[in-house]
Amino acid sequence: MAPNAGSVGFEQIKPGARLRGLDPAGLAEVVSVSNFGNDAINLVFRVDGRVAERLVYRGEERVFELINSGRAYAFDADGGLLRLASEAYRIRLAHLFDPYLAISASQIEALPHQITAVYGEMLPRQPLRFLLADDPAPARPSWRAC
C-alpha cells in the first residue's frame, strides 16, 4: 500500500473520500453514499471527470484503498530552490523584454557598429557560420563567411 493509504471500512466511505480500486480507470472521488441496510451501500463517484455509480456489498471494501488527501498546496519547499528556478525562468524569458540582453548584461562596452554587425547582419542569417573580427583602427568590423 502507499504510505498515505489505508484499508477501508464501510464507516470510512463518505462524500469527498478518495478511493483506489473502486473503478479500474483510476482514483475515484466519492460524491454521495446511500445505505441499503447494514450490508450494502450505493456509491456515486467521479473518476477523471466521469460520474459513475456502483453498489458495494460488505466485504468488497477490503480491496479499496483510502487515499488521505493532503493539502492541495504546501509552502514548505526550499526557498533557495524556488529562487533558483524563478531566476532561471527569468533569464530564459529575458530576450522578450531586452533583445540586446547579452550586451547589457556583459561587462563589454560594445560600439554601435559592432551591435549593428552582430544583431543586424550576422544573427538574422541562419545557419550562423561567421567569424567576426574587429580592427580598432578603421572602426569597422570585417566578417567572413566560413
Compressed to H and E, one letter per element, the order equals: EEEEEEHHHEE
Oligomer: single chain
Number of helices: 3
Strand proportion: 25-35%
| Structural class label | alpha+beta
Q: What's the Cα radius of gyration?
A: 32 Å
Number of strands: 8
| Major sheet size, sense and barrel closure | 6 strands, antiparallel
The average pLDDT value, as a whole number, equals: 81
What is the general shape?
rod-shaped
Tell me the distance between the termini: 62 Å
Helical content band: 10-25%
How is the largest sheet built, in terms of strand order?
Answer: 1-6-2-3-4-5
* Uncertain parts: none
Structure description:
This protein has 146 residues and is of the alpha+beta class. It contains 3 helices and 8 strands, in the order E-E-E-E-E-E-H-H-H-E-E. The protein has helices at 79-97, 101-105, 112-122; strands at 5-7, 18-23, 26-35, 40-47, 50-57, 65-67, 130-135, 140-145. The strands form 2 sheets. It has a 6-stranded antiparallel sheet with strand order 1-6-2-3-4-5, with no helix packed on it. It has a two-stranded antiparallel ribbon with strand order 7-8. A hairpin with a 4-residue loop joins strand 7 (130-135) and strand 8 (140-145). The protein starts with a strand and ends with a strand. The mean pLDDT is 81.
In short:
24% of the residues lie in helices and 34% in strands. By secondary structure, the protein is an alpha+beta fold. A hairpin with a 2-residue loop joins strand 2 and strand 3 (26-35).
